[in-house]
Specification:
This protein is α+β, with helices and mostly antiparallel strands. The protein contains 3 helices and 9 strands, in the order βαββαββαββββ. The structure holds adenosine-2'-monophosphate.
């Protein structure tokens, strides 16, 4: 199973990201766009691992406080164009706790430095990111998710396998 730990977004943030994607399309950027329901922020990428319950057990020890984030500009890693994130320090603390918990449990993950981004489009086919208006929306993050990634016919299919709530947060569903 291909697994990763992520922050999933509310419709305000996903709508804002979709509006950036629309602006890129209008500027003739024709790449592989991330589907609306797949827009997320990765905290740690585990990759192939057979025991999601062991990951959830490890994550149960992660303690973090609710934190705020908002969208902040665009950037690229080669042919991956992303939206940036401006967040409380608690985002970094949360990501490093997640990584620490995985390491303690002996669960491997991609050790690249945490560089918060939301992939919007891959292989855009042009070099320069056109200027876009970034909607001023924000969100309070109260949970993080263990995600399963599977290849669908047309795009990736991401399924939430479990969540960890921030401290002082009550489960609503
Ligand atoms: P990306 O969007 O920058 O590719 C699911 O693949 C998520 O895990 C994506 O958000 C992806 O980031 C992230 N990820 C981090 N490291 C990865 C890796 N080594 N291979 C694939 N995805 C990775």
């Amino acid at each position: 199973m291909r697994l990763f730990i992520a922050v999933n977004f509310n419709d305000d943030i996903k709508g804002a990201l979709a509006s950036i994607q629309e602006q890129l399309k209008k500027s003739n950027v024709h790449g592989r766009y991330t589907a609306y329901e797949n827009l997320h922020l990765t905290l740690a990428f585990i990759g192939e691992y057979g025991d999601p319950n062991a990951v959830l057990d490890a994550l149960a020890g992660v303690k973090f406080k609710p934190f705020n984030l908002r969208l902040d500009g665009m950037g690229s890693f080669g042919s991956v164009w992303w939206a940036g994130i401006d967040a409380d320090d608690e985002l970094k603390r949360c990501a490093s706790q997640v990584r620490h918990a995985l390491a303690q449990a002996g669960i491997g993950f991609d050790k690249k430095r945490f560089s918060p981004h939301i992939t919007l489009v891959r292989e855009p086919g042009v070099q320069v990111i056109p200027s876009v208006e970034i909607p001023n929306v924000q969100m309070t993050v109260r949970e993080i998710s263990l995600m399963l990634s599977e290849r669908g016919k047309r795009s990736m299919i991401y399924t939430e396998l479990g969540t960890v709530l921030a401290e002082d947060t009550e489960r609503t569903v």
